[in-house]
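Student:
Attend to each token:
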Amino acid sequence: MRFNTFKKPLSFLLLFLTTQIAFSSTGVKAQTPVIPTNSTKSICPNQLKPVVDVLINRPQFSRMRWGVLVKPLSSAQTLYSRDAEKYFTPASNAKLLTTAAALQQLGANFRIRTSIYQDGEGILRVVGRGDPSLKTAQLTELAKQLRKLGVSQIQQLIADDSYFQGEIINSSWQWEDVQAYYGAPVNSLILNENAAVLSLLPQTIGKPLRLRWTEPTEAYRWQIENNSVTTQTDTPGSVEVSRDLKGATLKIQGQLPVDSQPDITAIAVFDPIEHFLRHFRQSLSIEGISVTRMFSATGGKNVQEIAAVESPPLSELLVETNVNSNNLYAEALLRTLAIKQPLEKNQTTADAGLKVLKTTLTQMGINPTSYVLVDGSGLSRKNLISPEALVQVLQLMAQSPQAEVFRASLPVAGVSGTLKNRFLNTTAVGTVQAKTGSMNGVISLSGYVNTPQYEPLVFSMMVNQSDQPASLVRQAMDEIVVFLTKLQRC
């Protein structure tokens, strides 16, 4: 499997809005409004249905399912609807529900704390609470705090990873996803998004590609089966990186031309606690602190905190979650919701978070039968959401005290995140904020439209069981959204 390039959103590559639409009035019944072309400056609300119907009834879309709902932001009026009440696999549109519930329950200023406690002479325990933003820089800060306290030697360094209970990988996630960085394990002590970054570099012609880790110590954690090759100039380049089921063997296949740039890939770590402790020991060593023994354990009383770091506020975590569609952040936030109630017997933290999420959305006014969630990111194909549910969430969040923060967490068309390279040179640039979603056979887009000549709109579009290239489906969705920006009162 070819992993997506590290740090780039999954839905970046697509064809831009290019298709012009023209219709002949002779083929339309007299009572049907004339459908404008894509270059038309404005359309009336009663023209929207034929415009959208023609777009999604194209022959190449005949085998897929479309769910669409368009409404004014502040009213119950429906401008367009197709199977809006039915379930669809939402992909990352599920993050809208997760982030809405997190913002309602935790507040924009909520931060996630990582603490070090002293359990005895020379015994320190690191307690993680699932901060998905924790990086090596924060480990350096913790090490500096310990050094200022006069710590120069640690007899026992204990990693307490018990804050999140349950499996670190959702059982319904697909194997090709959990290998990649966007399917990284979710635990209490997350570091560098639980991913390892590597570059594959061409050598002389005929030789295998050279593997270089961003963090050199990763080289000792993997067994490498390198069946790649460096080829002549101007030959096609393609590299596949995969893990075996046990996780410790990395298989590299493919080729790169001798004069090509390195191929950068990220993979999910298979032992996040070992990953954390190894990196923390390195940070401690740089500060002149030695560690005799490291291991994972639970059961501390959290009495004497001697060092700590905090995440950015939730408002910033939401931006990473939605703008860049970060699965790990969404899953961590889902589990963080569980702090609102004690775990029941045999209940996982993720399940407790899902229960809080549903209760929160129901209290907001979201129909609890309009969706079924099994994770917080949308990576599972068992998630089911109706366009109706997504529109409800968007409308109710727009009416909440957290409206501005929630809206700021969404990508802006032609400007940021997963929409940065979409809608370019159209009227949607800067006026549309929406959450993308993408997996094999699934494309989704839901958000807000600030129409210059009409009232603000909210919309949700989901396509399932698609046999067409994702770029083609996205292009059709983008055309629909552009038409929404051209609505005017007639």
